[in-house]
């Protein structure tokens, strides 16, 4: 074959390769792992997890953005749907992703907050003071939503919701009564969790991004049942924080936190927007 013909043949191959669309290679994303342990390459689902992690860390997918669907990942990565599902499920449990039933899978928000108060885990606050923290789950069930709850969550009358009640203690003394309702459509696995090992708020925080938060603080006397659970007199004033959260415009949870006024206070610290008039 003449030299011009060889050159033309190479140019034709190069041109065809340039036109061919580039497909993601799952094997390429585990290069470091296979170098470290060439005899034991990572499992397929681990390769998919690494691929998604890389896409997030590189900025291809940002916090709050929806990632490709399971079917899209199956088609582009050439793995089974079961493999993709396991990878997404584990990344969700690790807090990197959140999955909303019927909507999609999103990159988890790293710091959800409201304009009034941060969403804080009471256990972390108590431990940060060097005190002992404990809690007890008194109720965890699925039930018909009361009218005020269905209204708060934007659900139809008679809709079912998940309901949990917990008492949080500091050095053995009750400081917060948590009465929480959760929309099953957004967190379908919520009620199946072992709340002796993970608090309800922690689980929701890890699986559902809070795009919008509403906090309302009020002062009121506790009910007889609330006073008994908090081990206070019925005439002792309490601070009540009511919280609603939404993700992608859909209500996630409606919670009421009751704190004995003599044992707890609510507050926050924030940097004011200097572009706005200060009063």
Order of helices and strands: HHHHHEEHEHEEHEHEE
The structural domain count equals 2
Q: What share of residues are in beta strands?
A: 25-35%
**In one word, what is the shape?**
elongated
Describe the structure.
This protein is an alpha+beta fold. It has two domains: 3-107, Arc Repressor Mutant, subunit A (Orthogonal Bundle), CATH 1.10.10; 122-260, 3-Layer(aba) Sandwich (Chorismate lyase). The protein is 31% helix and 25% strand. It has nine helices and eight strands. The protein has helices at residues 3-19, 31-36, 44-57, 70-77, 81-93, 122-128, 147-153, 200-207, 224-230; strands at residues 97-100, 104-107, 133-144, 160-170, 173-182, 212-220, 238-247, 250-260. The strands form two sheets. It has a six-stranded antiparallel β-sheet with strand order 3-4-5-8-7-6. A two-stranded antiparallel ribbon has the order 1-2. Strand 7 (238-247) and strand 8 (250-260) form a beta hairpin. Helix 3 crosses helix 5 and helix 4 (70-77) packs across helix 5 (81-93). The chain is elongated and about 65 Å long. It starts with a helix and ends in a 19-residue tail after the last strand. Mean pLDDT is 80; it is low at 14-23, 25-39, 111-117 and 274-279.
């Amino acid at each position: 074959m003449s030299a011009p013909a060889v050159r033309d043949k190479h140019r034709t191959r190069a041109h065809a390769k340039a036109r061919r669309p580039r497909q993601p290679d799952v094997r390429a994303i585990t290069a470091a792992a296979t170098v470290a342990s060439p005899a034991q390459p990572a499992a397929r689902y681990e390769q998919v997890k690494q691929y998604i992690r890389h896409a997030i860390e590189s900025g291809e997918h940002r916090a709050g953005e929806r990632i490709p669907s399971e079917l899209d990942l199956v088609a582009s990565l050439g793995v089974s749907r079961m493999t993709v599902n396991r990878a997404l499920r584990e990344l969700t449990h690790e807090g990197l992703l959140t999955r909303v039933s019927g909507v999609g899978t999103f990159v988890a928000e790293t710091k959800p907050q409201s304009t009034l108060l941060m969403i804080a885990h009471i256990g972390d606050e108590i431990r940060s003071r060097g005190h002992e923290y404990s809690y007890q789950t008194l109720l965890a069930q699925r039930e018909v939503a009361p009218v005020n709850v269905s209204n708060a969550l934007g659900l139809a009358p008679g809709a079912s919701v998940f309901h949990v009640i917990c008492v949080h203690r500091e050095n053995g003394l009750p400081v917060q009564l948590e009465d929480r309702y959760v929309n099953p459509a957004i967190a379908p696995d919520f009620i199946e969790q072992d709340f002796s090992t993970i608090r309800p708020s922690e689980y929701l925080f890890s699986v559902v991004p809070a795009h919008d938060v509403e906090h309302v603080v009020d002062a009121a006397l506790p009910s007889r049942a609330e006073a008994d659970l908090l081990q206070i007199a019925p005439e002792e004033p309490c601070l009540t924080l009511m919280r609603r959260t939404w993700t992608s415009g859909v209500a996630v949870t409606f919670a009421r936190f009751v704190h004995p006024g003599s044992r707890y206070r609510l507050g926050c610290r924030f940097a004011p927007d200097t572009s706005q008039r200060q009063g």
